[in-house]
Design a protein that fits this description.
- By secondary structure, the chain is an alpha/beta fold.
- Helices cover about 55% and strands about 10% of the residues.
- It is built from ten helices and seven strands.
- It has helices at about 15-25, 35-50, 55-70, 80-95, 110-120, 165-175, 190-195, 205-215, 220-230, 235-255; strands at about 75-80, 100-105, 135-140, 150, 160-165, 180-185, 195-200.
- It has a five-stranded parallel β-sheet with strand order 2-1-5-6-7, sandwiched between helices. A two-stranded antiparallel sheet has the order 3-4.
- α6 links the parallel β5 and β6 (about 180-185).
- The protein is globular, with a radius of gyration of 19 Å.
- The structure holds adenosine-5'-triphosphate (ATP).
- The site of adenosine-5'-triphosphate (ATP) has 19 residues, from α2, α4 and α7.
Length: about 260
């Protein structure tokens, strides 16, 4: 494997380390080649939002925590990139909110399902749905392998957390009445626009913050949690996320872009 040592002093250290993690997971058969491209698209939007959790993202994280705490049957959907980047935190979150974890792959193969499930189990997941014959149900309106879900998982869920999902499936989940929480760095993706709550942030920052928020809000009365969800407006939050990008661009214009060097 062609992995390189990145010095921690490198100005893009964190981003490069994430890239290394994804590439390593690709070599291990957890991430597919298309997942590498998806990661690159995410990196681009992360650059534009300033590689930090923005205020609108924090608002969405708070609403997502409330919705997950209110859920009767929450399910966290896990794909290859999610497993590669935040498997441990997903397991912690699932335990905290008593959610099921389901492997849900765009490019499904039994080998990859097993690898992802084993990785999640290595971090303490007691049960991982959506593997082999457990993906026994189908989402209407979707074709081929992409429609398979578990009847004990996503099919039964009232609230589904989809960190990284494609637009078709998000729309299909909405059409069958699921409350969908998405994490997607691109505020313009169909996933971002179709979800009930969209956290426009990198999953490596969003999931730990979601976990913190759930822990903080756990003892709030249901009426208060409901108020948070009812008052949340995804249209506004997506527009605020785009505005963050716009403001960053304005700042770059104001400050100037070129890097100066001593003559
Ligand atoms: P859609 O079908 O929803 O319009 P898409 O075709 O861009 O979107 P995919 O390529 O399936 O969807 O998914 C990649 C999405 O995941 C991109 O929107 C990308 O910004 C986002 N993404 C990639 N890596 C991360 C990450 N680490 N954290 C959050 N979002 C990410």
């Amino acid at each position: 494997m062609n992995s390189i040592r990145i010095p921690s002093s490198h100005p893009r250290y964190e981003s490069l380390m994430l890239r290394e993690k994804i590439v390593e997971a690709f070599h291990e058969g957890i991430v597919v080649a298309q997942g590498l491209i998806a990661h690159g698209r995410g990196e681009c939007f992360d650059y534009l939002i300033g590689e930090k959790t923005t205020k609108p993202a924090q608002k969405a994280i708070q609403a997502a925590a409330a919705a997950l705490l209110l859920a009767q049957y929450p399910v966290i959907s896990v794909n290859g990139n999610t497993a590669a980047l935040v498997a441990k935190q997903i397991v912690l979150l699932a335990k905290e909110i008593n959610a099921k974890i389901e492997v849900n792959l765009f490019y499904r193969s039994h080998e990859r399902e097993l690898k992802i499930a084993n990785l999640l189990r290595s971090y303490g997941a007691d049960e991982v749905l959506g593997v082999g014959p457990d993906a026994d149900a189908t989402i209407p309106e979707l074709h081929s392998e992409r429609r398979r879900v578990s009847s004990r998982g996503i099919l039964r869920a009232d609230v589904v957390l989809v960190p990284l999902e494609d637009g078709d499936r998000t729309e299909a989940l909405r059409k069958i009445g699921k409350f969908v929480i998405a994490i997607d760095l691109n505020p313009l993706s169909r996933t971002a626009r179709a979800a009930n709550i969209t956290i426009v942030d990198n999953i490596v920052r969003a999931i730990p913050r979601l976990l913190d928020e759930v822990r903080k809000m756990k003892n709030l009365p249901r009426s208060e949690l409901k108020k948070i969800v009812d008052e949340y407006n995804n249209e506004e939050v997506l527009k605020e996320s785009l505005l963050e990008i716009w403001r960053n661009i304005e700042q770059w214009f104001a400050k100037g872009l070129t890097i100066s060097f001593p003559k």
